[in-house]
Amino acid sequence: MTTIPSEAALCVYCGASPGNVPEFQAAAISLGQALARSNRPLVYGGSSKGLMGLVSSSCLKAGGEVTGIIPYAMATSGEGTGEDYEQRGRNKTIIVENMHERKMKMAMLSGGFIALPGGYGTLEEIFEVTTWSQLGIHCKPVILLNVNNYYDPLRKLVESAVASGFIRPSYAKLLTFVDAPADREQPIDWGQAALEAFDGWYSPIYQGLFQWSKL
After folding, report:
1. pTM over 0.70
2. Position 4 in a domain
């Protein structure tokens, strides 16, 4: 059984926009605070805007350690700047050449991935690291926080791909969905729920499709 050390850094994927319901922002803040409380470093895309800015600033304010990874083109346009990003010590920004290097670096530094709601970039990142587990490039959890049922359509898409013979049933389990209680009046701490899903994760497959080695 494959598990991930509890002290491993966690990579958070999420939007550079805040979304249009307060539950999205509250979940980002909750996740940042939970990472700090558990002494798990945060690795993320380096933006100071939207949900990315909220999860990173809340982690920093709670005493957490943050590493932002951002391409040069974005850094020079003003991304990754602001009040919270002037803090020293537990906040680090790594500037890379392009988006491909950014995603590779984020994956290399992290023991797992947690996704809040986001747009095209977030969805692409989710599927890429999930594909890497399927292929055997790495074996790490990919946890989706289904805030306000945001990821219900994605879950249905995966189920459709399984039913249509494009994804093996065991590989569908490479994505872990964290849902709110059925009783909408019952509160949920999204940060704590994410960490519980991470701690309870084990690989649903014994090995990926290929054995990767250097030539």
Report:
1. yes
2. no
- pLDDT value of residue 100: 95
Angle between helices 190-199 and 22-37 (to 10 degrees): 50
Residue 213 forms part of a structural domain: no
Between CA 146 and CA 102 the distance in angstroms is 25
Q: Quick check: is 70 in a domain?
A: yes
Question: Which domain does 128 fall in, by range?
Answer: 10-199
pLDDT at 77: 80
Phi first, then psi, for residue 66 (nearest 5°) are: -130, 135
Integer Cα distance of 124 and 127 in angstroms = 5
Q: How many domains is the chain built from?
A: 1
pLDDT along the chain (215 residues), means of 10: 65 98 98 97 96 97 96 83 52 93 96 98 97 92 98 98 96 96 86 96 72 63
- How far is the C-alpha of 8 from the C-alpha of 11, rounded, in Å? 10
Alpha helices in 66-199 (DSSP H): 72-75, 99-109, 120-135, 152-163, 169-172, 190-199
